[in-house]
Amino acid sequence: MDEKTQKSLEKTLKFHASGLRIPEGAAKDFIDCTIKNVNKALKSKTLITKKDLDRIVYKELKKYSADLAYVYINYDKII
Amino acid sequence: MSVLLSVIIILVAMLIQAFLQLSPSAFAILYHSAIAKNSFKKAKKLSIKFILGAGFFTITLLSIISFIFYVISNFVDLKSPIFDWVLAGILLTESILNLLFYFKKTGTALFISRKTSEKFLLRADKSKKGSDIFRFGISSCIPELLFTLPLYILVAKKIAELGILNGCFLIPIYLLAVVLPLFCVYIYFYSGHNLAEFQRSRTKHKKLIRSILFLGFLILSALIIINLEF
Fold it and tell me: Which of A43, B44, B80, B100 is most buried as measured by Cβ atoms within 10 A of its Cβ?
């Protein structure tokens, strides 16, 4: 994942974690672990679409916080 | 009997209005954004402005349409069957449109275009001042006018038929149909639930909501036709 995408992802996840009232420290741990795992999963891929990235992030994030993962993947399907 | 039917028609219209999803979902997104960026106390204050905006739009539009019907009633007989048949036809079409198009296939995404829904998400994110949120509350009612405008026209016509004095009571009562669901969402979030739980329950009850809206419009069009007989 390039730096810009990673920063954008971190910002989005922090925003949702704050909205879900997940404690800041715990949210930071979830996000850092998720990004680490996502980067590991993306090592073998040369090209990836946004949907693929979202799916991978959701899969990794679900291990730490089901609510955060749910909001992340479904945010644009609420309205 | 005619008065009783008119009241029942207004109540069914209120039920349909209460189950429409755009304002509550926009409100939920706004509340989520407000909590993310502000303190919980400030988020509560800001979200009340949204409810006021939605309520203001409803009461204004309903009052204007009722007034227009009241003025027209001096020149035209409001109990003319043609208008009622047209309205019944529109509501029947709405019931079918609702069944087929109200919810999209994914999640609880609504019939509005993706661009509009992205604008709503952006607006919920960017709104900081109370006035922005008040305007957001107003604009959350506009895309749904496709479904709500026939309801407003029908209710306004009934209010004009029942008299302007009754209208002074009926319009605030109708307002409850818009404001009460938003208050329920407000209390839901206030009691500790979050957007994920809210959205999960909406997805779980998507078919029920769609059925209620479909039957509501269908029953409403039937009631208008029955009312013609009395």
Answer: B44
Identify the pLDDT of residue B53. Answer: 96
Interface test with B, best of A13, A54, A64, A78 (most B CBs within 10 A): A78
Within 13 Å of residue A22, how many CA atoms lie on the same side as its CB?
23
Q: What b/e readout covers B129-148, taking b as 16+ CB neighbours within 10 angstroms?
A: eeebbbbbbbbbbebbeebb
Q: What is the pTM of this model?
A: 0.93
Beta bridge partners of B103: B110
Supply φ then ψ for residue B103, to 5 degrees: -100, 140
Residue with tokens 């005619």: B2
pLDDT score, position B230: 66
Q: How many angstroms separate the CA atoms of A9 and A11, rounded?
A: 5
Pairwise CA distance, residues B47 & B57, whole Å: 16
Taking CA–CA distances from A19, the nearest residue in chain B reads B36
Amino acid identity of residue B4, one-letter, is L
Q: How far apart are the CA of B24 and the nearest CA of chain A, in angstroms?
A: 9
| Chain A environment of B121 (Cβ under 8 Å) | 75-76, 79
A78 interface with B at CB cutoff 8 Å: yes
Each domain of chain B, given as residue ranges in start order, spans: 2-229
Bin B107: left if φ > 0, else alpha if -120 < ψ < 50, else beta: left
pLDDT of the residue at B32: 94
Searching chain A, which residue's CA lies closest to the CA of residue B200? A70
Contact of B22 with A79, CB cutoff 8 Å: yes
Nearest CB among A19, A68, A74 relative to B35 is that of A19
Measured between CB atoms, does B109 come within 8 Å of chain A? yes
